[in-house]
Structures are given as structure tokens and as C-alpha cells.
Amino acid sequence: SPKRDLIALANRAGEVLLHRLANFQRVWSLPPNENTGKEVTALAWRPDGKILAFGLTDTKRIILCDVEKPESLHSFSVDSSITYMHWMEVTEESSVLTSFYNAEDESNLLLPKLPALPKNYSTTAKIFSEEKSDEIMKLLGDVRLNALVLGGSSGFIEIYAYGMFKIATVTGVAGSCRGLCLSSDLKSLSVITEIRGSSDSEAEITYFQASKLDTSLLSSYLPEVTRMARKFTHISTLLQYIKLSLTCMCEAWEEILMQMDSRLTKFVQEKNTTTSVQDEFMQLLLWGKASLELQALLMNQLTVKGLKKLGQSIESSYSSIQKLVISHLQSGSEALLYHLSELKGMALWKQKYESLGLDASGIEEAITAVGSFILKANELLQVIDSSMKNFKAFFRWLYVAMLRMSEDHVLPELNKMTQKDITFVADFLTEHFNEAPELYNRKGKYFNVERVGQYLKDEDDDLVSPPNTEGNQWFNFLKNSTHLKESPLLFPYYPAKSLHFVKRQMEGVIDQCLQKPADVIGKSVRQAVCMCLYKTSQSEDSTPQLFKLPFLWNDKTSNIHYVLFTILENSISKIYILRRHTDTSRSVSNGILGVDFGSFLSNSINDSSDSRCYSCLDAHFYDDETVTVVLKESVEQEEKERVLAQLPLSSVYTDEDQDREFIWDSTKRLDEQNGEISTRTVFLENQWRVLENMKAQYVSVNGIRKVSCVLSSNLRHVRVFEMDVEDDGEVEEEEEEETT
């Protein structure tokens, strides 16, 4: 983690684990579940250390996870399996940006705070359910722009602003991605890919530096990109909020509410009289007498107790759905309308936003779709309202009738039924209790007394009983007016569709309008350099490939990209450092250097100490001045010691480099011309230590926290080291402990 003493690991079982560095105590683990996946192939920390992102190959999803507790805050799907992730922060400063960073987000002042989702629903709703922990703000994080760069197989590269909103889809890179690095001024993107010819041939590692036509777009429109991305993250959080509110509503709707429909259907199938169910109930209402069959249905199947329970469930269920619609769905969709309208305003400011691909007409469609969704939510409210009234009256009447049948005492206040009440119940019976054979073929039941559930079903079918709009003056007025039908001011209304259907449609339209900038910005990326580095040898030990090397690093202060890689020469992996300036027009030397390590393991018995060579197993930039390496002795002895060492760049790049620039022959791979590359022999004074009893293979470091973490070749042992420990100047690194 860039900010705290934490390390994130993923294992073969698909778990993501978070450990403290100090005593390697586990903070949490996130086991694979149906929302994530089993094969974690890439991990990345958000620069502020509050969110961990991980990519899954089997489900092709990216999950953003809260560092405090193991739950997904946001997730999205991608088109390819992810092989590498890099999350960087933009350090560029400008007065426009600073004023934007400092300005209070207006939506906080204008929009009411989104109410927290009720806690008593299932786990999906956790994220927005706690009043205090502003989960939404945690998800949005700092206003300063940060970008999550994803690389995958077959040349897939995408850049997500704030880790949520896609701002670029980069095309034209071949091979599957092994390393990525976006410079902190957004001027240049370096990529290392692995190109496999055929299945058995050796893979070729290639370095691309895609300098984006002076990335005119991302870097020169940085304030606009930041502002646009910020809006988009607001919009995607709101979409998630609405989705979760809807999930809560579906949970509030219980299966018991279907009881009435299923009991009546069974009654139709079993009865042998010709009178319809509707007539049976009508006779009970008017004459107070029920046929024996209806009596059996009411007394034996429904029972007085069951009727009471059904009445209570309907009341509690409907009122909680009603609350969710009013407080969550409506406030969420109003906030969505606000942000989309702001976005439309931005899109109309063409000189600033047009070249980023913001398109006002697309946003206009999104606004309309949100409007339709709000209309549908209002319709649901009306249906709930009338259903509650109807059921209350109906159950009250039926309860009295059933008490009379069982010859129980009926309380006098229950006995009062005015003419108005009777008419009300009669209307309810005529409207809801007519048999519908065609419905039986569709849904396996003859009745649809319960009208709310159909709105919450996630299916494309039309509603079973759409609202009755006959005689509605507004509808008639619209029907007869030619001009109003096409008016952009009126939101289209889908009377026969469920709430879920309209929501899916809204998400689709919004996705569509958020998609365009990514394509436009992605197309502006041009490839500046493409170099073939080397072929990977298949003969290496069968150690599992963690794609650590080649490693990319971006020096933020001088905007230089470094690439570390090793090439096998006479059975020694020799490390090379390739240095390129991100601004390709600069005449600064783009150097490439090989590094030999002079012998430094003082071995008194063996005098032929010059013959010792070291193979480099893994290397990682510790900070802008130092590289941390894991070395292995290549000497014909049984005990090959592994060494962890710090290699200062100052000892590699000395002043005389400036004159001798390596002339690159672009027709050949680098490993075919490495004889001409100048090599530095470096003697490490005291910046190293032997790793006892451990076949170290990989290293991961954090120069800010001054720690490094070494992983063994069988991936089962982890050791954590503190790097700059003042110990009387003797040994600079102190081992902490090992965990298996």
C-alpha cells in the first residue's frame, strides 16, 4: 500500500488477503464469491491507499474493494482478461485545476443528501447503508485526478479515471500486456507486451512507447478531463445507488403476497360448480351466504389466522416498498437528472468539451430515459397506494364474513359496513377477481390480485395488469394532439413495462453516452516507439510465472520512463536498464545500459572470487534513485546464495554516458545486438544482505514506507524487510520475520 503498512496478496484459491507488514497479522480476506470470481490476476492500490482494485480473469471483472472491510464498493466488466493494472495519480498543477480542486462541489449544496439504505436487507446494500461512513465519498476519493490503467490479453488497454469511468480505450498495440506505465503528466504511456507467434514458439517481449501526439488530448485538456470524469463518477455511483434501492424493494416484496393468487387458482381447478369465483364472492358480499366450496376454501385453506397474517404482510411489505421509492429511488433519480443536466451544459461548451467526445444529443437521450424511470416509479407509488386501500377494505369485509361463518362473536365496530364500503369492495372484486385463462398459460395462475410484484420482476415480459388509463383526461389530450406527441419536453411513458425494464433501458442509454469520450480519446493515441526487446526462453525452471520483469517505472520529477529487464547471456540473467524520456521531441539521451555486479560476498577460502557472477532474478524500483534487486550466485557450488541488494542509479549512470548513445538497429531484437551495449560493473558496498534458507525469487517494494517484501520461488514464503534501518552503519537492512 502506498500510504499504510499493508500488503495485499492474492492466492491460487482466488482469495484476496490483506496483511499488516509489522507482524504479518491478517487484516481481512475476501474469499471468491459469485459476484467476483476465482482467478485474481492483477492487483493495484489507489494512490491514496483507501481502495484496492483487483482484476479477475475468469469473470473478466474489476472489483474495487474497501481497505477497511472486505466488501466490493464498485465493480465493472471488461472485454478481455486482465493481466496487468497500474493506478497512478496526476501530479500536474495548473491554476484552473487548483481552483476546481478547492471549489466546493456544488451538488452538495443544491441536492439533499442521499438517505442511507436500510440495513435490514441483504449484503448487497451494505455499501450505502451506514449513515456516517460516507461510502460514496470514499468511492469518489480525492478530487485530484487519478487513473487506473488496465492491460489485458490481445492488446487490450483501457484507462479509467478515478478507477470508475473509462476515459480511453487504446488500440493498435499487439500482444498481451506485461507492464504498463502512464506518466504523471499524462503525456505518455509505456507498454510492454508479450507476443506469441505460434503455440510452441518462444514469446517475444516488445516495448511500446505510445506517446500520444503530444497527448494533446489528455494532458492539454486536463482540467476538462478531470471535471468530466468527476461528473461521470457521480453518475455511476448514483446508478449503483438506484440499483441497490431496487434490490431492497425486491427483497421487501415477499412471496406470501402471492398466496391469494395461488389459493384462488387452486380453487378454480378443484371446484365442480359452474359459477365463477367472482360470482361466488359477490354472492357472499350481497346475500352474506357462501357456497360450501367457498366456505371450505376460506375456513380450511385460508383460515381466520392466515387471513390476518396475509393482511399484515401486505401492509408491512407495501409500506416499506413505498418508503424506498419515495426516499431512495426518487432522490437518487433526481440527483441523476441534476448531474446529467450539468453534463449537457458542459457538452454544449463546444470549444472545451467537443474534442473530448462529449455529445449533447446523447446526454439529452439519457435525461429523457431518467425521466421515464421517474414516471414509472410514480406509477408504482399510485399502484401501491390504491392496492393498500383495496386490500384493507377487502380483508376487513372478508374477516367479518369468516367470523360469521364460524359463528364467532363479531365486534360491533367491525360490523358497520356502509353502502360506500360495499360498493368499494364490489368494484375491487369486479376488477381483480375475473378469471383470465390466457394468464394461466403465461404465468400458471388464473388471477392477478396482487399488482405490485409485477413491477419488480426483472424480465422483458409486459406487465400482466398494466394500469388502466381509460378516461384519463391527460392521456386523451395527448392522444388527440399532434404536436405534443413528439415534444422533447415530455418524457416517453411505457405503460406496459416493469420498473426493472425501464431501469435497464436507462442504464443502457447512460452507458452509451458515457462510452463515447473513451473511443474519441483512445483514437487520439499514437504510437511513437516500438522496440523488440528479447525472446523469453522456455527452458527456465518451471517456476510459476509471476509477470514481474520486465518492470516499468516513471520518474515523476524528470518524466523519464525506465524499463528493467534481464537477458540470458551464457546462462547468466544480466539486468539491463532502458531509459527513455517521455517527451519524444527532447534530445535527452535515451540510454540503455547493462549492469554487472562485482563480487561482494567476501569468501575467504575461495580466492578465485573474481569468477563469481550474479544472475538477476527480479528487480523493482525502490524510489527514483534506487533499484532493489534479488540476485543469485551463478557458481558451480551446491549452495547458491540469494541476495537482496539496493542498486543506486547514480553508480550506473555516470557523466561519461552522455556521449556514448547506443544506436538502435530497429530491424533486430535487442538480445541480438547486446554485444554493443555498454555495461557498468557495480560494486555494492554495504547495501545488501544474504537471504538465508530461502529460494527468493520475486521482490515487491515500497520506497515511501521503506519496506520490501520477498517471495520465494514456490510462492509459499514471504519475508518482509525494513530497508533503511540505522544500525551503526553496518548492515542497512534488517530482516523482520518470515511467514508461510
Automatic annotation (TrEMBL):
Question: What domain of life does the UniProt record list for this protein's source?
Answer: Eukaryota
Does this UniProt record's set of keywords contain Lipoprotein?
no
* GO BP terms, alphabetized: anaphase-promoting complex-dependent catabolic process; cell division; protein K11-linked ubiquitination; regulation of mitotic metaphase/anaphase transition
Segments forming domain Anaphase-promoting complex subunit 4 C-terminal half WD40: 552-722
Identify the keywords attached in UniProt to this record, alphabetized.
Answer: Cell cycle, Cell division, Mitosis, Ubl conjugation pathway
Gene Ontology cellular-component terms for this entry are:
anaphase-promoting complex; nuclear periphery
Q: Domain named Anaphase-promoting complex subunit 4 long: which ranges?
A: 212-408
| One Pfam match | WD40_APC4_C-half
Q: Which residues form the Anaphase-promoting complex subunit 4-like WD40 domain?
A: 1-89
The record's annotation in InterPro entries points to: APC4, Apc4-like_WD40_dom, APC4_C, APC4_long_dom, APC4_metazoa, WD40/YVTN_repeat-like_dom_sf, WD40_repeat_dom_sf
Q: Which PANTHER family match?
A: ANAPHASE PROMOTING COMPLEX SUBUNIT 4 APC4 (PTHR13260), ANAPHASE-PROMOTING COMPLEX SUBUNIT 4 (PTHR13260:SF0)
User: What's the protein name?
Assistant: Anaphase-promoting complex subunit 4
Q: Which organism is it from?
A: Gavia stellata (Red-throated diver)
